[in-house]
Known about the structure:
The chain is mainly β. It has helices at residues 3-10, 28-42, 117-120, 125-128; strands at residues 47-56, 62-73, 76-81, 84-88, 92-97, 102-107, 129-133, 137-139, 142-151, 158-166, 171-179, 184-194, 214-217.
Amino acid sequence: xxxxxxxxxxxSGIIFSGMAQSKGASDPKAKTVLDGVSNKFKSLKTVVANxxxxxxxxxxxxxxxxxxxxxLKGAKYxxxxxxQEIISDNKTSWTYAKDVNEVTVNNVDQSSxxxxxxxxxxxxxxxxxxxxxxxxxxxxxxxxxxxxxxxxDKSKNVFKVIVSVDKKSQSIAKMKxxxxxxxxxxxxxxxxxPNTNLxxxxxxxxxxxxxxxxxVDLR
Length: 219
């Protein structure tokens, strides 16, 4: 999988930056479910979630699949994938590529509309999407409440997102992103651990732990 896919999709959880809000009606039942997820997440001090990222091409053929972990503490986050780490302390972000032993450093734009992993679990949906509740499904013994979100800005490459919420735990179980080019990205949460003891050092990049790393500072 190309690095830009991982960086683009995971640096921002699922990036839909700068979408313009337009008039439209959303399903109040869907909002109730999404608000439940948001409120629960806000009550947690930290979250550690393991996930599987699947990239699908035409005819739903899986072209790549990777396991990863996301660590969350307030607005701070760290995403680890095979060969890549994406870290942010909400002031500075670091994107590390293992194969070239290189880290790219950027300032976090607080005014940006870009989604972060933390925002993914909160009320990101209110401004940039219309949403409706679909039929419930059962997967791996879990009852899932499925919500279809469509961006209000129709010029974007993403035209639909399906969020599947575990009805019992009120947490996101799966999210599938549909692009106009035919690609699908599925994030499946395989394990969700709340209130783990995470130090602030988790959310910074320590170059001493990466001997010989090349630092590309774009700040």
